Design the sequence.
């Protein structure tokens, strides 16, 4: 789920 | 969300609004590279594919829609608007930008964090964004006379990724395991590409003379 943390960036 | 990322997003938003303002009000896109705008439309289209599948916040979705809408409408204006398209200097804007797309796609197929369709395209958009400004910088070198709005557009566009680098440093320091080399290196390369533009932009601003890039 850490990878997802980057996906909340534009 | 941290102040650096918010500043980065606002700077990015400002760059797009400056460009739309220029094109919409004076009905001119002189000095603007259509190639860079097309690359940015591809960057947003491949980065925001998850807009329909994952929802993070109203802000996130709203900004994605703004960036998608503005980049495609700028391309539309420059290609099809009867007045604007005449001000596009296609003889000068000759950077073969498709030569940027293919290597970025190949690189994304080789270096990514997960080998899934969305992840590879997302990584492709990172690499492509890092080099998307090149046709615009080449055009500025050629046309030399940079009008204020185009200069501000490039300056803000370069500044936003600089804020993002501060955001990544902040998140690395505050969030455990927040390590994303691919994003960091692509973002750093992107910001470094603006380095000489920034230098001449500050020189012209300091000496209060018109921005001139060396040939």
Sequence:
């Amino acid at each position: 789920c850490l990878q997802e943390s980057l996906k909340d960036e534009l | 969300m941290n102040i650096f990322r918010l500043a980065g997003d606002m700077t990015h938003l400002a760059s797009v609004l400056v460009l739309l303002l220029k094109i919409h009000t004076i009905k001119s896109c002189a000095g603007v590279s259509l190639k860079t705008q097309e690359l940015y439309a591809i960057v947003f289209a491949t980065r925001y594919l998850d807009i329909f599948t994952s929802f993070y916040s109203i802000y996130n979705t709203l900004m994605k829609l703004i960036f998608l809408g503005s980049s495609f409408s700028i391309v539309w204006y420059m290609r099809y608007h009867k007045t604007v398209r005449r001000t596009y200097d296609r003889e000068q804007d000759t950077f073969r930008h498709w030569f940027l797309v293919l290597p970025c796609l190949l690189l994304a197929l080789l270096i990514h964090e997960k080998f899934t369709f969305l992840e590879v395209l997302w990584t492709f958009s990172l690499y492509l964004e890092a080099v998307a400004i090149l046709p615009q910088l080449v055009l500025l070198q050629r046309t030399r006379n940079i009008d204020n709005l185009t200069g501000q557009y490039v300056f803000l566009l370069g500044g936003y990724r600089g804020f993002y680098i501060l955001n990544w440093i902040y998140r690395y320091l505050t969030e455990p395991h927040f390590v994303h080399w691919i994003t960091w290196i692509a973002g750093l390369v992107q910001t470094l590409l603006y380095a000489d533009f920034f230098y001449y932009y500050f020189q012209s601003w300091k000496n209060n003379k018109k921005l001139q890039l060396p040939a």
